[in-house]
Amino acid sequence: MKKILHIAVLLNLFLVVSTCEKELQLNTEEVDSRLAIMCDFSPDEPFVLELSKSKSINSAKLESNIINNADVQICVNNEVIETILPLNSSSDANTKYQSTVALPEIKQIYTLKVEVDGLEPITATSSIPRAVEISHSSIGEINSFLTDDNETVSYEVRLGVQMEDPVDETNYYQISFFQEVLTSTPSIQQNEIKVIPSEGYSLIDDDLTNNFNLIDGGILFKDLSFNGTTKEFVFQPLFYFKPENLNTTSTPINIIIELRSVSEEYYKYYTSVYRQSSQENTPFSSPTVIYSNIKNGYGIFAGYSKSIVKAPIEL
Questions:
Q1: Residue 86 domain flag
Q2: Residue 267 burial by CB count (10 A; 0-12/13-18/19+): exposed, middle or buried?
Q3: 1 CB-contact burial (10 Å; exposed 0-12 / middle 13-18 / buried 19+)
Q4: DSSP string for 205-235
Q5: What is the Cα–Cα distance from 60 to 58, expressed in whole angstroms?
Q6: Is 156 in the same domain as 279?
Q7: Cα–Cα distance for residue pair 100/48, rounded to 1 Å
Q8: What is the tally of structural domains in the chain?
Q9: Same domain as 50, residue 153
Q10: How many CA atoms lie within 13 A of 271 on its CB side?
C-alpha cells in the first residue's frame, strides 16, 4: 500500500513540474555597430589612426570590422587642415589612416571627425600638453643574475629621475624604461642597436604608492602630491638579455628613460584600461567602464609630448 502511495505522489509531482515548465525567451536587444578609434599623437609626428567598428551580439560572425572607406578629417578652429586617406585600401588589411600634411603642435586643440556610410558620425577633441623635461637622472646599484635557462641574464637597475612640475595646474604623466642593446654578428660584420622595453619595475617612492597605474612599458600618475615642486622618483626596472645567441652577441649599453606629459583624456583612458585588466581574474570585483572621449563611438583620441634621456650602463 505504501509503495502505491509513493508512486502516486511522484506521479503528481511530475505532472505539476511538467505544467510549470516555461520556455525561456532571451531578449537580446539589437545594439547598432559603432566606430572605434585609436589615436595617440605627439608633436611633429603624423596622426596615425586605427579604425574598426564594434559588433552587436546578433551580428554575423563572419562580418568584417575593417573600415577602409572612411572620411577622416583633422580640424583646427572648425577648419579642415587635412582629409586623411587609408594607408592600404585592401579589403582585408589592417585599417590605418595616416596624415601626410598635418603635424601636431603643442597646445593646439585638434578635432577629429570621421564619417562612414551606415554608421553614426563621430567626433573627438584633444591637445598636446607642453613637455616637462627630465632635469636630472642617475643610475645606482645594478643586480644581475642568470635565469633558469642558463642563457638569459636578468638585471635590475636603481634609477633616480628628477623633474620640475608646473605650478597651479593638474599634470598627468607616463614614465617608461627601455634598454638599448648592442647586438654584433662578426660573421657578417654587422652591428645593430635594439630598443627593448622593461619587463617590470619596482616603485621606491611612498608619494606614488596610491597614485599610479601600470601601463604596458610604463607607469601612469598625476601630480597630486607634488604639484608645482621639484620631484625626484626612484624606480627599479627589470630587464633581460641573452649575451650569446647562435652567432650573435648582445650587450646592454644604455638605459632610456622616457617621461611623457599626457593629456587628461590619455590618462583617463589608459587608467581605465589598466583597472579593467587588473580585475580580469577577480570575479566579484565591480566592473570598470572604459573611458572614451569619442562622441558616438569608442576608443581614444589623445595627445602627449615627451622628454627622453639616455644613461650609459655597464654590466
A1: yes
A2: buried
A3: exposed
A4: -GGGTTSEEEETTEEEEE-TTTTTSEEEEEE
A5: 7
A6: yes
A7: 10
A8: 2
A9: no
A10: 17
* pTM over cut 0.70: yes
pLDDT tens digits in sequence order for the chain, 315 residues long? 444 444 444 445 444 444 444 555 545 455 578 899 999 999 999 999 999 887 655 554 545 667 878 999 999 999 999 999 888 755 555 578 999 999 999 999 999 999 999 899 999 999 999 999 999 999 999 999 999 988 999 999 999 999 999 998 999 999 999 999 999 988 777 788 888 888 877 766 656 655 566 676 678 899 988 999 999 989 889 999 999 887 889 999 999 999 999 999 999 999 998 887 776 666 656 677 899 999 999 999 999 999 999 999 988
9: region left, alpha or beta (phi > 0 left; psi from -120 to 50 alpha): alpha
- Domain boundary among the residues 80, 109, 127 is at 127
